[in-house]
């Protein structure tokens, strides 16, 4: 009899939990939210193990599920904030070289202040290092639209980073 | 050239969460694993389904039971799952995709807070979805077996065989066969001024002529308006047989735009023009040309 992937998941739980939680916490920055998304990730994983074909349960796979949950979260947030966002947040594009070494704490603060769509694009592309076509798939946009979004997101990030006083 | 944004790269660093959280989540997982399994999926997602490109227009349905709808469209319409549905925190399906033939169908549970309600909540359908299937009768039968309600029985229409059902979630589907290869109805050649409008074979014995040409050319006949006159079915130009002639002759009838003007010219050119007589198909006059050949002129009504 084939091992039950559901129980394989439970066996992997102790090892996978810090990885999934660490991935999420570093990207969403808030403990409660990271916990919620971690729970969502593992419960979705339980569902997935009951489907055919059963996924190969691994830490990498779970981090992938977590990435989906994070994008879903930002999508919800984006939907809630749409209309509230100020026009001034849409920064003019400027593509001049920008080579400042980035301050990690400041990066975190700047990302947290960006709109969810910009934050999602930058996180997937740069923090996770996904190629643009994969980012596009996660965001359910075309590659072309994703490239345009990334350009705007980078501009917004630079603008916020350059005006950010640094973490208080 | 390196992208300065590459500096943002953030490898996964494990972080141990609050042990109470870890314990609670483990307990939730154990409970979830012990719960009865949901209905196993009958069809799985496959690469081909993922490869179906998005068309210019894609329907995105709100249904009051997205899980049930996914099963229904898979079982009744042969749809294929396209990726995993996105499940929201509250358990609702926020987004799911199916490949149906060469099209993508998106659907989600109802989100009243976003103004997204299915037809049942709205009190009826507001649109129909036309689905082309290989076997309309079979598709309607399968849909009804799985709870769809018949709206219009399967029948043949000029544009193909089709029927309509309301699915168990209230959406209306027109299940249709592919339209038969676009063959625009052959336009009836309309005779213009100077064209041959009708050919009359006048013969001494129409029965003998009908038999002869029926055997030789496969002509079929319909009784005409004149006595012992027969219309030959389906020939171009239109033609008929007339009796009472002393010897066989072919008489041509030419279309004209203005019969009175044409008759005037017949006389002017040394021909003989009869009187215009009303016929079921227009005004007609018999004429003789300047060498004695008989012909007719017709101004169609």
TrEMBL record, chain B:
It comes from the Bacteria. Residues 53-178, 195-300 form the VOC domain. It comes from Solihabitans fulvus. This is Glyoxalase. Pfam families: Glyoxalase, Glyoxalase_6. PROSITE patterns: VOC. Gene3D superfamilies: 2,3-Dihydroxybiphenyl 1,2-Dioxygenase, domain 1, 3.30.720.110, 3.30.720.120.
